[in-house]
Design goal:
Length: 538
């Protein structure tokens, strides 16, 4: 095999690899010997077919297979000989004029990872902001939980429905007088003012009484998931069967028992654990952001353009999804476009920090154990339908890149924990409000967030230089949301599709995802609630 370097520019490399016809032919011979025992041909005993006849029968397929194997081996030898560390999968192309029986000319183009000087981890200083999980915080959490479990009780039949009341209705929808699929339902519970239904529907139920029959006129949203109903004007014949009012929620032993607990004290104990977990998570988020800021300020090196493009594409795609949900889509698109270079700078920073953390981890022996990896795979498999989970597990086990993508978030967290151990940390007690404000604040007016700074991607990717009214709002996404599926579908078409906030790889290396991309048929079927309105932005 002959290798000639044809490009060496920055992090870009290109090579011309010549694989001799003799090498390819030798591999064909090996293939012939490998399959000979299984080849059957009239007039010959099994395994006794002459090699020249096997070549005649399977020559084209054997040559193609041998060529592919020769190219794979050639690329591996090139990486070893030149000590190359590819940033992404190399682009390998065979000369279009190649003819069987002749030498093969192969072009290998790639970007290499930069040589990063041994990262300094000395002198790291961090402040750990802590918030005590006191009785006030615990009771606030219980009250929040109780509000989510709102109960309703029957109201007098003469009661006119008001905001906050719940109605039980039957409905039949039509567009231009024609009923549509899924447009009919019975005994659907609607809380007025909840924002669950498409705009205007709930408002027209205010003042309704038991037995009332109303015609509700609405316009389906432009992004409604059913093509025939996007932007359509519809009418719903609604019959009000019941009107209910919110029941008073008493937080006492009886309330705790309704949850299957022994007493209110037991509920407080459980809620305190949850509050402590949330507060510890906020503390870690703040520390991690400050850690990454220090690393970014003290390290600067070129990063592979293809990795930056991959990260930028991920950021941009999520922002475009947010823009599509804005009231004035065109204005939002124009404003987003004006910040394109700011987002690209963010992508550069995220890639650089991802590479830097990886280098620190390797230099100090940080590893993800086999047991931890198996647990990651099992958790990721839960995102798929039961019948697809084993196929996903096998896919990750067989695909090194997929496994690396799955391992990356945990690996980075372990590197961060290692750096926490090395840093000089001072403690300061504060309030939850102050801690959350500190996380959201852009201290220098131009902070560019890095991978894993503790914010969801929408906030990560937002330039700090201006706060645009029409720009997609930042969201505080629950860490559990990443694995959650959309709510189960309901019958009523009057609700707009549930749309989970676009969630970035929080605390993850740039340009890598939590799970490898899968073919559409491998993914679990998305569960949609075509009747629900987009999830409210927090």
């Amino acid at each position: 095999m002959k290798t000639v370097e044809t490009l060496n520019e920055g992090l870009k490399r290109e090579y011309r690899v010549t694989i001799t016809a003799k090498d390819i032919d030798a591999r064909v011979d090996d293939e012939v010997k490998s399959i000979a025992p299984t080849v059957r041909m009239p007039g010959f005993r099994p395994g006794k077919v002459p090699p020249n006849l096997i070549r005649k029968m399977h020559g084209a397929a054997l040559s193609a297979d041998a060529l592919n194997k020769a190219i794979d081996a050639g690329v591996r030898d090139l990486m070893t000989k030149e000590k190359l560390r590819p940033a992404l999968q190399p682009a390998v192309s065979l000369d279009e004029n190649y003819e069987s029986g002749k030498d093969a000319e192969v072009t290998v183009a790639l970007e290499v990872l930069p040589d990063i000087a041994a990262p300094s981890i000395e002198g790291l200083k961090l402040e750990r902001l802590t918030v005590p999980a006191d009785d006030k915080a615990v009771m606030a959490k219980i009250e929040e939980f109780a509000a989510q479990m709102k109960r309703f009780e029957d109201a007098p039949k003469s009661k006119k429905a008001a905001t906050g009341d719940q109605l039980i209705i039957d409905f039949a929808g039509s567009v231009d007088g024609t009923p549509f699929d899924g447009g009919t339902g019975e005994d659907m519970a609607v809380e007025i003012g909840s924002g669950q239904l498409i705009p205007g529907f709930e408002d027209q139920l205010v003042g309704a009484k038991v037995g009332d029959e109303k015609t509700v006129k609405v316009t389906f949203p432009a992004d409604y998931p059913v093509a025939d109903l996007k932007g359509a004007n519809a009418e719903f014949a609604v019959t009000v069967k019941e009107v209910k009012v919110p029941a008073e929620a008493k937080i006492d032993d009886e309330f705790a028992k309704s949850l299957g607990l022994e007493s209110l004290d037991k509920l407080k104990e459980l809620m305190k654990d949850q509050v402590e977990q949330e507060l510890n998570g906020l503390t870690r988020t703040y520390m991690k952001r400050k850690l990454l800021d220090q690393l970014a300020a003290s390290h600067d090196f070129d990063v592979p353009p293809t990795m930056v493009e991959a990260e930028f594409a991920q950021i941009w795609q999520q922002l475009e999804q947010e823009v599509a949900r804005e009231d004035d889509v065109e204005a939002a698109k124009a404003e987003l476009e004006s910040d394109r270079e700011d987002y690209r700078a963010i992508a550069v920073r995220r890639v650089r920090l991802g590479l830097l953390l990886s280098e620190i981890g390797q230099a100090h022996g940080v590893q993800v154990s086999n047991q931890e990896m198996q647990r990651l795979i099992a958790q990721a498999a839960q995102q798929y339908r039961p019948e697809d989970r084993q196929r996903f597990v096998e896919y990750v086990q067989q695909d090194a890149l997929a496994a690396a993508q799955l391992r990356a978030p945990l690996y980075e967290d372990k590197v961060v924990d290692f750096l926490f151990e090395k840093a000089e940390i001072s403690d300061r007690e504060t309030t939850r409000e102050e801690l959350e404000a500190a996380i959201e604040a852009d201290d220098d007016g131009g902070h560019v967030h890095g991978p894993g700074c503790g914010h969801d991607h929408d906030h990560d990717a937002k330039p700090a230089k201006k706060a645009a009214a029409k720009k997609p709002a930042a969201k505080k996404a629950d860490v559990k949301e990443e694995a959650a599926e959309a709510a189960p579908a309901k019958k009523a078409p009057t609700k707009k599709a549930d749309a989970k906030p676009a969630k970035a790889a929080e605390d993850k290396p740039a340009a890598k995802t939590a799970a490898p991309a899968k073919a559409a048929e491998d993914k679990p079927a998305a569960k949609k609630a075509p009747a629900k309105k987009a999830a409210a932005k927090k």
